[in-house]
């Protein structure tokens, strides 16, 4: 049965949509694996992964099957009831991590909102209302709700919306002395990304995360790790905290968890989870059977030795070639990150021009990202074929040649 679709074009965005995004000039209409086709049938290689969301690429058969099977059974029942996919997913996440309790929502911002509220609630119940301060890192990114954007260490995202919530402090990332100077008996939580994502794919130093854990223990504060972007295999371990051997009290994740279907999760221990008793926090769509069925399939595919090892091997494949391109054309000073989350740092003459690289790449039929103005970001499918990596990097080199030659 065919469905009549009205013809739409990129100009319609400017006519009908709130102008808070500035999307590319083309409209993707179909995807398969790491390839995307636009309205004109042009094929592009996708190194963006929907900004680290499409963990298994486009239309992965296991995810399509999980979604269509669940779509024929049950879509939504609310949290007045529970459902089987929610319980299966929670069990799998808990078996694979430090956690023994899960809370499901629809996005990374909601997962962080829940994490911050839980941290404040735990401190309130155990120590009293004065223990409410949250310490976050400068240049961090934790979401766009008013609470999470205030915890985010980038004032450009939170300024201009009226008075900000109190009790939030920002300190430089990877600076243990600054964290030690800021933390106190009033601190209820320290929140860190294991790799700062939006501000440039900057990994935490081992000693820094270990020190943060030690300080949190010393001051009865909770360590929250924001793994919205790094979680679910992105770094080559199921969660990035596993690389460091530093276990958080609360972990937030989203993005790659649903492989393209909106879902977020907050994971924690039962001694903390009990402070979210019935009615204390909630969400209409969280734990939706469709989302959880898809996420369960993602975990089943990603949390296997062959996929996780493959991610590490693909990282090397990317890094080796990107470093060679950087040397040859003098455009990158460093290639950093883990797994399939890679940042190529632009060299001094190219500072501020990440957007130009994106545009040049698109002209060569390649989709890439930026992380700030100085870093080109790659966050492709975790199972991207080596042939697609090689072809995509060929196109990327052509884009760099185009730029360098002006």
UniProtKB/TrEMBL annotation:
<dbReference type="InterPro" id="IPR004636">
    <property type="entry name" value="AcOrn/SuccOrn_fam"/>
</dbReference>
<dbReference type="InterPro" id="IPR049704">
    <property type="entry name" value="Aminotrans_3_PPA_site"/>
</dbReference>
<dbReference type="GO" id="GO:0030170">
    <property type="term" value="F:pyridoxal phosphate binding"/>
</dbReference>
<comment type="subunit">
    <text>Homodimer.</text>
</comment>
<dbReference type="InterPro" id="IPR017652">
    <property type="entry name" value="Ac/SucOrn_transaminase_bac"/>
</dbReference>
<dbReference type="GO" id="GO:0003992">
    <property type="term" value="F:N2-acetyl-L-ornithine:2-oxoglutarate 5-aminotransferase activity"/>
</dbReference>
<feature type="modified residue" description="N6-(pyridoxal phosphate)lysine">
    <location>
        <position position="255"/>
    </location>
</feature>
<keyword id="KW-0032">Aminotransferase</keyword>
<keyword id="KW-0808">Transferase</keyword>
<dbReference type="InterPro" id="IPR015422">
    <property type="entry name" value="PyrdxlP-dep_Trfase_small"/>
</dbReference>
<feature type="binding site">
    <location>
        <begin position="108"/>
        <end position="109"/>
    </location>
    <ligand>
        <name>pyridoxal 5'-phosphate</name>
    </ligand>
</feature>
<feature type="binding site">
    <location>
        <position position="284"/>
    </location>
    <ligand>
        <name>pyridoxal 5'-phosphate</name>
    </ligand>
</feature>
<dbReference type="Pfam" id="PF00202">
    <property type="entry name" value="Aminotran_3"/>
</dbReference>
<keyword id="KW-0963">Cytoplasm</keyword>
<dbReference type="GO" id="GO:0006526">
    <property type="term" value="P:L-arginine biosynthetic process"/>
</dbReference>
<keyword id="KW-0055">Arginine biosynthesis</keyword>
<keyword id="KW-0028">Amino-acid biosynthesis</keyword>
<feature type="binding site">
    <location>
        <position position="144"/>
    </location>
    <ligand>
        <name>N(2)-acetyl-L-ornithine</name>
    </ligand>
</feature>
<dbReference type="InterPro" id="IPR005814">
    <property type="entry name" value="Aminotrans_3"/>
</dbReference>
<comment type="pathway">
    <text>Amino-acid biosynthesis; L-arginine biosynthesis; N(2)-acetyl-L-ornithine from L-glutamate: step 4/4.</text>
</comment>
<dbReference type="GO" id="GO:0005737">
    <property type="term" value="C:cytoplasm"/>
</dbReference>
<keyword id="KW-0663">Pyridoxal phosphate</keyword>
<dbReference type="InterPro" id="IPR015421">
    <property type="entry name" value="PyrdxlP-dep_Trfase_major"/>
</dbReference>
<protein>
    <recommendedName>
        <fullName>Acetylornithine aminotransferase</fullName>
        <ecNumber>2.6.1.11</ecNumber>
    </recommendedName>
</protein>
<feature type="binding site">
    <location>
        <begin position="226"/>
        <end position="229"/>
    </location>
    <ligand>
        <name>pyridoxal 5'-phosphate</name>
    </ligand>
</feature>
<comment type="similarity">
    <text>Belongs to the class-III pyridoxal-phosphate-dependent aminotransferase family. ArgD subfamily.</text>
</comment>
<feature type="binding site">
    <location>
        <position position="141"/>
    </location>
    <ligand>
        <name>pyridoxal 5'-phosphate</name>
    </ligand>
</feature>
<dbReference type="InterPro" id="IPR015424">
    <property type="entry name" value="PyrdxlP-dep_Trfase"/>
</dbReference>
<feature type="binding site">
    <location>
        <position position="283"/>
    </location>
    <ligand>
        <name>N(2)-acetyl-L-ornithine</name>
    </ligand>
</feature>
<dbReference type="GO" id="GO:0042802">
    <property type="term" value="F:identical protein binding"/>
</dbReference>
<dbReference type="InterPro" id="IPR050103">
    <property type="entry name" value="Class-III_PLP-dep_AT"/>
</dbReference>
């Amino acid at each position: 049965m065919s469905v009549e679709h009205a013809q739409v074009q990129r100009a319609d965005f400017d006519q009908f949509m709130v102008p808070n995004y500035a999307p590319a000039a083309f409209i993707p209409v179909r995807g398969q694996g790491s390839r995307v086709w636009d309205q004109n049938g042009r094929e592009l290689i996708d190194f963006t992964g929907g900004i680290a969301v499409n963990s298994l690429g486009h239309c992965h058969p296991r995810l399509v099957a999980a979604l269509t099977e669940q779509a024929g059974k049950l879509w939504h029942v609310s949290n007045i009831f529970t459902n089987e996919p929610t319980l299966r997913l929670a069990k799998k996440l808990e078996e694979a991590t430090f956690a023994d309790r899960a809370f499901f929502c629809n996005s990374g911002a909601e997962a962080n909102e829940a994490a911050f509220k839980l941290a404040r609630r735990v401190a309130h119940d155990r120590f009293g209302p004065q223990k409410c301060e949250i310490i976050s890192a400068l240049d961090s990114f934790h979401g766009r709700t008013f609470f999470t954007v205030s915890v985010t260490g980038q004032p450009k995202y939170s300024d201009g919306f009226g008075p900000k919530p109190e009790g939030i402090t920002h300190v430089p990332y990877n600076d243990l002395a600054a964290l030690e100077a800021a933390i106190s008996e009033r601190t209820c939580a320290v929140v860190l990304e294991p790799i700062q994502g939006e501000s440039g794919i900057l990994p935490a130093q081992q000693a820094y995360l270990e020190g943060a854990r030690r300080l949190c223990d010393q001051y009865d504060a909770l360590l929250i790790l924001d793994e919205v972007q790094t979680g679910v295999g992105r770094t080559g371990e199921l969660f990035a905290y596993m690389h460091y051997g530093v276990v958080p009290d609360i972990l937030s994740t989203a993005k790659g968890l649903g492989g393209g279907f909106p879902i977020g999760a907050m994971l924690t221990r039962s001694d903390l989870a009990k402070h979210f008793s019935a009615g204390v926090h909630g969400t209409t769509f969280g734990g939706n059977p469709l989302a959880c069925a898809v996420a369960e399939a993602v975990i089943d595919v990603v949390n296997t030795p062959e996929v996780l090892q493959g991610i590490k091997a693909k990282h090397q494949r990317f890094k080796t070639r990107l470093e060679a391109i950087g040397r040859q054309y003098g455009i990158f000073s460093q290639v950093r990150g883990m797994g399939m989350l890679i940042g190529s740092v632009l060299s001094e003459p190219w500072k501020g021009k990440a957007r130009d690289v994106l545009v040049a790449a698109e002209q060569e039929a390649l989709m890439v990202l930026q992380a700030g103005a100085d870093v080109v970001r790659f966050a492709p499918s975790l199972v991207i074929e080596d042939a697609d990596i090689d072809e995509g990097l060929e196109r990327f080199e052509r884009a760099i040649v185009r730029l360098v030659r002006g």
